[in-house]
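Data deposition worksheet. Section B asks for the primary sequence of the deposited chain exactly as it was used as input, without tags or linkers unless they were present during the calculation. Section C holds the resulting structure in token form. Section D is free text for depositor observations; keep each observation to a single sentence. Incomplete worksheets are returned to the depositor.
Section A, Depositor: J.P.
Section B:
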Amino acid sequence: MNGTSATLGRQSSKASTLWKVTLIAIPIVTLGLLIWLRQAEVNLLRQRSVSSYGSVPEFQLINQDGKNFGSADLRGKIWIADFVYSTCPGPCPMISSRMSELQEPLKITDVHLVSFTVDPAKDTPEVLRTYAERLQAEPGRWDFLTGAQSTIYNLSRNGFKLAVSDGSDAKGIPVHSTRMILVDRHGEIRGYYDATEADAVTKLVADTTHLLREQPK
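Section C:
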């Protein structure tokens, strides 16, 4: 019996030691796996590319400060655009809120934000300046543009390939796209992001960050 007890004791001791080793090994292996997966994700991000959808034509409009502002001011910059208007009862508040959210994650970059009004008759520079202040837009980093309606609508339709109407239909309000547009340093459109989607900002920041690495200053 004593021999049997000793054998059982040794087996119990070995099992206990094995269990302790297992308990120590599990978090180490898990951590190693997480690090590997993260590195694989980073490598995949580095290898992927951001598509190109054509170039934005030259334009010149007026910003919220009443100054001329156009493609020449954006040359050599990565920028993000949207089309909204200050009295919009629909998606504009959400689109503008999404644009505002971009300011923090991109604050140490030279990425510029540009909002075009689709109701230039009402959205004067003064109105747009108030709208910008409401959104806490950073001066010099986010411009709100107005000007000739024909210029803006042509830019939306033929430049950014986005639908737009002047509100002459039964509802009587301008209709425009809910998408934000990413443009690279060469004036090429590199992505469209629907502001109504919950992950729009996350996707846009990820692609903008990739573009910043692809096209450093």
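Section D:
The first strand starts at residue 60 and ends at 62.
DSSP finds six helices and nine strands in the chain.
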